[in-house]
């Protein structure tokens, strides 16, 4: 077990578009955004949705940004939610967000909304702000006695490692729920993998693959000489190390097994497309457009997790898993592996129906399921969210240490364990 104190983290630590920032310069969507256009949730279980509570969770939503992320997760269409408040830095976006989610109040910042949480009787907030602010705002919400879910990643890079023990402390002291909206968890293929794993079909896991290939992104627009903070508040995406945004790949292991990565060695490939990356002319000092990580895992298995911004012509969030009894290998256009036929025939491997009228959303129809998961956990004592604080931190930590490894020429690094 590694030191999870602040000293331990500080001693050890010394694309894009999947999470929107609260951008004062954010523009309306004009083109398809990878992930948000993947609205096919796959085949769903035939059994109709049944009400599970007559109560409503009073929710506040922070951040609309370039991707309209605050309104994209279906809170306004969930029958067990009342959207009480919203927050957005940009006045125009704030008005739009309020209209879309039908919020009773609108605040100029998430901090202001949290401070008025008691007055508004907020049960929960969804933080869809810039990545730098996720963990800070989550801690603030928990300290005010408010359940919280955030966009990904849980925190941004090695400079925020000091917040990790603070978040764990805030969850423990508050007794409230922390969740991260990692969309992988409710993609149809990952959902099936998780059920197969829980049913013991794989046996001991031997190997997992996950990949997040997101070519272009705002790098393309940077090449067109658009303002570099056009798509992200404070330009946090500008020069972002690929493995600082690792959850869409790492989730194919963590959201299946709920186990962690213990060691990593990572190869960084210098960007061939954008000089400000290749020459490390960015706040992160990052030269890489792609980072390819090999992990040792808690269960003794291996995992290969890839994040790439440079690769042209192909963009995907996909994963595969192998065990000693068989494998599950979803691919575009079909499935192969030992359990493909079983998954097709057995409805228990299919995602259940959501409430009538509730928006499934993008990223493989995962948005609505993450919202449903969070709401159920608040209302039902025996329901545990898939992406809790430990899973969220394990996914994010793996990527941060992967980038650190790449910057050290692929040196093998141990990854700290986090516990409550």
Descriptive notes:
This protein folds into two domains: 6-183, NAD(P)-binding Rossmann-like Domain (Rossmann fold), CATH 3.40.50; 184-350 and 388-414, Dihydrodipicolinate Reductase, domain 2, CATH 3.30.360.10. The protein is built from 13 helices and 14 strands. The protein has helices at residues 6-13, 91-101, 110-115, 117-120, 134-143, 163-174, 188-198, 218-223, 247-257, 275-278, 340-345, 367-379, 389-407; strands at 57-62, 81-87, 105-107, 124-127, 147-150, 178-180, 205-213, 261-270, 288-297, 302-308, 316-323, 326-331, 334-336, 413-414. The strands form two sheets. An eight-stranded mixed sheet has the order 13-12-11-7-10-9-8-14, covered by helices on one side.
Summary keywords:
Dihydrodipicolinate Reductase, domain 2, eight-stranded mixed β-sheet, Rossmann fold, alpha/beta, 420 residues, single chain, disordered N terminus
